[in-house]
């Protein structure tokens, strides 16, 4: 059985790590380079670095910051925000990223997924999907959750897999920052219907929530931000508890 991954997420705005609730009310969480170094040393399996305002502000991910973060870590590192071309990805990978995450640009131009996979391989391409449950249907949102689409989460996820993406990072906007647990019902459906890894995001507030998303949600990895940034959960403690509960993790 493949080990389950624990992934701290560094949401970046104006060069700082930030964290909000339901995608708004952002507060400062520290220097991203320092945090990345701490996480790499404390047992994180991977890192995700998202320049959360890059698409909204129509600018590119901070490649220089990516370079400095990558200098400090020895674990896989995914970068997202404002990526819309093969050239964007090339620059980020050259600056030290192991994988890239695309979101709004993939919805607007699904062929981009195919193009990136053809150039860099599936293992490099993560498609992030932000969705909100509205009247019992999960609807995809873009631009940091600000733009509603007509896409159904599960239909879009299937298309993403068919186009060759290596992983899906699913964030429940309903759960984001609430610390009430992950959207395990939706995660279970994604994990059951698809053959590529699903990363759970949005809602982590306790060690039990991580256990639940691996057992009930069948997620392959769990991503969190504030519980790690503000030291509410230490990664080593989390992994030891998961191990005790029979969940395969790397210690």
Automatic annotation (TrEMBL):
One of its GO biological process terms is: L-histidine biosynthetic process
Q: What does this protein do?
A: IGPS catalyzes the conversion of PRFAR and glutamine to IGP, AICAR and glutamate. The HisF subunit catalyzes the cyclization activity that produces IGP and AICAR from PRFAR using the ammonia provided by the HisH subunit.
Instruction: Please state what class of enzyme this protein is.
Output: lyase
A GO CC term attached to the entry: cytoplasm
Which catalytic reaction applies to this protein?
Answer: 5-[(5-phospho-1-deoxy-D-ribulos-1-ylimino)methylamino]-1-(5-phospho-beta-D-ribosyl)imidazole-4-carboxamide + L-glutamine = D-erythro-1-(imidazol-4-yl)glycerol 3-phosphate + 5-amino-1-(5-phospho-beta-D-ribosyl)imidazole-4-carboxamide + L-glutamate + H(+)
For the keyword Cytoplasm, the answer is yes
**Subunit structure and binding partners:** Heterodimer of HisH and HisF.
Q: What is this protein called?
A: Imidazole glycerol phosphate synthase subunit HisF
Write the lineage as a comma-separated list.
Bacteria, Pseudomonadati, Bacteroidota, Flavobacteriia, Flavobacteriales
Q: Where in the cell is it found?
A: Cytoplasm
Q: Which InterPro entries match?
A: Aldolase_TIM, His_biosynth, HisF, IGPS_HisA/HisF, RibuloseP-bd_barrel
For this protein, what is any one GO molecular function term? Answer: imidazoleglycerol-phosphate synthase activity
């Amino acid at each position: 059985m493949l080990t389950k991954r624990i992934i701290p997420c560094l949401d970046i705005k104006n060069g700082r790590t930030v964290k909000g609730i339901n995608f708004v009310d952002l507060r400062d969480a520290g220097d991203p380079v320092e945090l990345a170094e701490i996480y790499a040393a404390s047992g994180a399996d991977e890192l995700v670095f998202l320049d959360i305002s890059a698409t909204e502000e129509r600018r590119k991910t901070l490649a220089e910051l990516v370079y400095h973060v990558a200098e400090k870590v020895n674990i896989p590192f995914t970068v997202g925000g404002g990526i819309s071309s093969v050239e964007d990805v090339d620059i980020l990978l050259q600056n030290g990223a192991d994988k890239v995450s695309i979101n709004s640009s993939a919805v607007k131009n699904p062929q981009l997924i195919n193009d990136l996979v053809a150039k860099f391989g599936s293992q490099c391409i993560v498609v992030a999907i932000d969705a909100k449950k509205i009247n019992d249907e999960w609807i995809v949102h873009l631009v940091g959750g600000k733009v509603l689409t007509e896409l159904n989460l599960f239909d879009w996820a299937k298309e993403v897999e068919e186009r060759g993406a290596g992983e899906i990072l699913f964030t429940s906007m309903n759960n984001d920052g609430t610390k009430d647990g992950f959207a395990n019902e939706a995660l279970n459906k994604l994990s059951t219907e698809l053959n590529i890894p699903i990363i759970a995001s949005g809602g982590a507030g306790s060690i039990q929530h991580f256990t639940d998303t691996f057992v009930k949600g069948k997620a392959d990895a769990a991503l969190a931000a504030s519980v790690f940034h503000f030291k509410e959960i230490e990664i080593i403690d989390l992994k030891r508890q998961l191990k005790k509960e029979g969940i395969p993790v790397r210690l």
